[in-house]
Amino acid sequence: MKNVLLLAFGMFALGFDAYVIAGLLPGISDTYQKSTSQVGQAVSIFTLFYAISAPFFSSLFAGKPIKKILIWSMLLFTIANSVTALAPTFTILLLSRAIAGTGAGLFSPLAVAASTKFVSSEKKGRALGLTIGGMSIGTVLGVPLGIYISNVYDWKITLWLLVMIGVISILCMYFFLPDFPTTPPPALNERLKMFLDKRVTITVGVTFFASVASLGLYTYLSPLLEDMARSSNVTMYLWAWGFGGLVGSILIGYLIDYFGKLKTLVTIILFTLTLSIISIPFMLNFPILKYLPFFVWGAMGWACQAPQQHILLSQQPNNGSSAVALNSSVNYLGSAIGASLGGVVLSIQTGTITLIYFAVISMSLAIGLQFYSMKKFRIN
């Protein structure tokens, strides 16, 4: 598991970067004199370029030395973060977020697919859970720390901390991650068959709509809480969300290995995630309990990814890396669209409660697709 931990540390940097920006929106907004909905597009552009780059680079670099690709992608990601910290204009900041998203889109699916190469078949679920768990740890530890640093000093200091983490990750992979055999690149017709496989389409469709709801809503957590809870301090809610993500992403690996019925497990996760989002406006009125929906939301949102990727690996055993990359891409595409729609909602001043409505509608579509998949293909 040592090699899996090295990959998980790289994912930690990605999780820190992808989710801390949502907490830095007020500071970035003040620096560049932009509205919250405009600055929210910095999240959208990161996730959009992640979505575009993941499947493209997965195919382009299929069969190439994965260790070198992981190191170069983390280097690109780290340089982009340094540009974000130095950006003299908002346009350059958006450009740097696009480059960072490209580096993340290259690193993440390869790291997830590579993690299964270092363990036996019966431990693949745990390896996937641990690697993805690196992102949730980046959220639960990095995001509150980054927001604290931003409040005490400046949001740019948080970005420099990210740069330092990226450099450490690069050095650790260079010196300690072994070279390992790569899977030969699949033939073009095999890749096309994967995209035309109805099972794959429905599986990533579930991922898409769940991501629109979960990650899109998360982007605007700060204005949501200011409106509903009359609180500008989002740190404790982010702690609850991130800690839930940590618990969910680590425990899900064991559930995959021992529960077995992956589609049933995903269905339970989707229902629980929907209920947690619905309960937010009601639970905010109760001390202590107001953090519970955010904990459950984080746990279910993060737990959903590993079984989905496991299902895709079983559906496309000869295109595992490409299938995982596609799911990661769709996950972040959903986040980009969710963040963009959230920005539209805020800009037309329909009230932040509308963000909850959009999230519930999107989750309903995810559940509908999941039921169709279970009925149509008759597998666990």
Protein traits:
mainly alpha, Growth Hormone, Chain: A, globular
Describe the structure.
The protein has one domain (2-377): MFS general substrate transporter like domains (Growth Hormone, Chain: A, Up-down Bundle), CATH 1.20.1250. By secondary structure, the protein is mostly helical. Helix 5 packs antiparallel against helix 15 (320-347), helix 9 packs parallel to helix 15 and helix 11 packs parallel to helix 14. It is globular. The mean pLDDT is 84. Helices cover 83% and strands 0% of the residues. It has helices at residues 2-32, 36-39, 41-60, 66-86, 90-115, 124-152, 155-176, 188-196, 198-219, 221-228, 235-259, 262-283, 292-303, 305-315, 320-347, 353-377.
Question: How is this fold's topology laid out?
Answer:
Elements: H1 2-32, H2 36-39, H3 41-60, H4 66-86, H5 90-115, H6 124-152, H7 155-176, H8 188-196, H9 198-219, H10 221-228, H11 235-259, H12 262-283, H13 292-303, H14 305-315, H15 320-347, H16 353-377
Flag low-confidence runs. Answer: none
Computed over alpha carbons, the radius of gyration is 19 Å
Q: Could you spell the SSE succession in H and E letters?
A: HHHHHHHHHHHHHHHH
Q: Largest sheet, described in full?
A: none
Helical content stands at over 70%
Pfam families: MFS_1
Keywords: Cell membrane, Membrane, Transmembrane, Transmembrane helix, Transport
Subcellular location: Cell membrane
Protein name: MFS transporter
